[in-house]
Design brief:
Elements: H1 3-20, H2 23-48, H3 56-72, H4 78-84, H5 87-109, H6 116-134, E1 150-152, E2 155-157, H7 160-182, H8 185-192, H9 197-202, H10 207-233, H11 243-257, H12 261-286, H13 292-307, H14 313-318, E3 347-358, E4 361-372, E5 376-380, H15 387-394, E6 402-407, E7 410-411, H16 417-422, E8 425-427, H17 440-447, H18 456-460, H19 465-481, H20 497-509, E9 515-519, H21 527-542, E10 546-550, H22 554-558, E11 563-568, E12 571-576, H23 578-583, H24 585-591
Helix pairs in contact: 2-7, 2-10, 2-11, 2-12, 3-4, 3-5, 3-6, 3-10, 5-10, 7-10, 8-17, 11-12, 12-13, 17-19, 17-20, 19-20
This protein binds adenosine-5'-diphosphate (ADP) and magnesium ion.
Length: 596
Amino acid sequence: MGPRVVLAVFLAFLALGPAILPEFYVTLLNYIGLYGLVALGLVLLTGVGGLTSFGQAAFVGVGAYTTAYLTTTQDLPAALALFGSSPWLALAAGLLVTAAVAWLLGAVTLRLSGHYLPLGTIAWGISLYFLFGNLGFLGGYTGITGVPALSLFGFELADTHHFYYLIWAALLGAIWLTGNLLDSREGRAIRALKGGTIMAESMGVDTARSKMVVFVIAALYACVSGWLYAHLQRFVNPTPFGLQIGIEYLFMAVIGGAAHVWGAVVGASLVTLLKQWLQDWLPEVLGTTGNFEIIVFGLLMIFVLHRARDGLWPLLAKLVPEGAGERTAVPAAEPLSRRAPAPAGTVLLEAVDVVKEFGGLVANDRMSITVKAGEIMALIGPNGAGKSTMFNLVSGVTEPTSGEVRYCGERIDGLEARRIAQRGMGRTFQHVRLLPAMSVLENVAIGAHLRGRRGVAAAVLHAERAEEARLLAEAARQIERVGLAEHMFAQAGSLALGKQRIVEIARALAGDPNLLLLDEPAAGLRYLEKQALAELLRKLRGEGMGILLVEHDMDFVMGLADRVAVMEFGQKIAEGVPEEVQNDPGVIEAYLGGVD
Ligand code: ADP
Ligand code: MG
């Protein structure tokens, strides 16, 4: 049975559910659908984007309260009267309110890193909960009753069965949209967040924007869930929108499989059914009542997290042969337009008297360096000399303490890394920064981020397929160019470290750079692979690219570079053609430790 058959069977089961299942289970499935929608947002936010939120229940509350208030208040202010005239217009209002609230909360919390972000979400999760309970016009802690039933095309959705189809249509629709988003340029930018902002920004991704996108989308899903809930229950009070439920939503996403859209359904089902069964069975087993089910539930959650760190979905997916529709070919597409190449000999990069201090440590001390189009400039020096720091200053990862960096004659020091990438500088990292669970193809496609234009709206509807095909074809072309065609569809993390460095070169090339910064690209390569790399770099130089290379392997550098600069203790101690530098007594002393 292939994945498509499994999906068809599941959909058929869902379609027949109300006809074959007892009423009680239809109700449970309604709740699973409502929870699944919130958990899906968390899959995107937490599982894919790496941003943990405990506060999703509050957004469910925003959706529920907006519609409850608008559809039950008799004398709405004139400006709101239209939104109150139909639950569907109230949904639109809810989505607007949620987007605005999420944007505001996101603006203040998404900047927080590490454990401060989850703490921030707890803070506003609690605040919104108490806000619902304390606002008089929202009915205080008793809430709002008399929320009208939904009707669709004049047909009233009065019972559980009708709602069942609406809820599951919403959830499946959201799964489809989310799947589309993840399989797009915007989706790769979101997935790149997990590789750290330094990598993503260096590839041209506006990480603050990508974080906001997933944050708002997750909040909108929660809002839809709240809207459905309000019209299903026909009343709202603050209880279901508190922190404890927020934690449960997070459980669902993590247990189900935090990085997989279907994990949301698995997690919501598991948590909902388990709680229900424990509530029914435990009193029989233990012969007493009490909140034992919460304790057993907690223990089971810990057990699952122990046994399946990536959640249950990956385990379930393994039961289905031939993967989950993985890509095995890249169709040809019209090539992307290219940047105008700089004429050979143009000064591309010019760093003048750059200083970088880390506290008392001067990692770069009045370093000056130039790289021209069509040359390979090597930067060598012992470990800790300050080479990688120099790379980071030049590529916008850090700002120099003083000094100037110019690219094609324009000041770039102080610019964000993505703005520098946009001007045509591509880089790799000494410590490989790939997304190990993503394919080599997708990793390299991240490098082409700035060569696409289509945004989130096009991505969720898959209206950007033509551009996407061109981006993937470009990524494939670069992978072939660096000689890794046979690994194109492999997970990047499965490659040997040396090969992963080459993937990084392909990713940098996918941005169509004029200047390439390579931080120890030959480390971990075997002799023949080094030869192939040197051949590639010569070819790139021949095409007019400027290359700044940090390398330890002297033979590799000396046979390849046009010019060499030598660093020691943050300073440049020599510069010249390889022969000059090789025979410089100072360099022999410093770099080779005085050994001839
Ligand atoms: P290289 O790449 O030549 O081996 P680096 O540029 O990585 O050297 O490091 C130069 C010096 O700066 C080292 O002493 C290193 O410990 C220090 N250094 C690098 N990055 C930082 C940082 N973010 N904070 C503090 N010290 C740093
Ligand atoms: Mg280094």
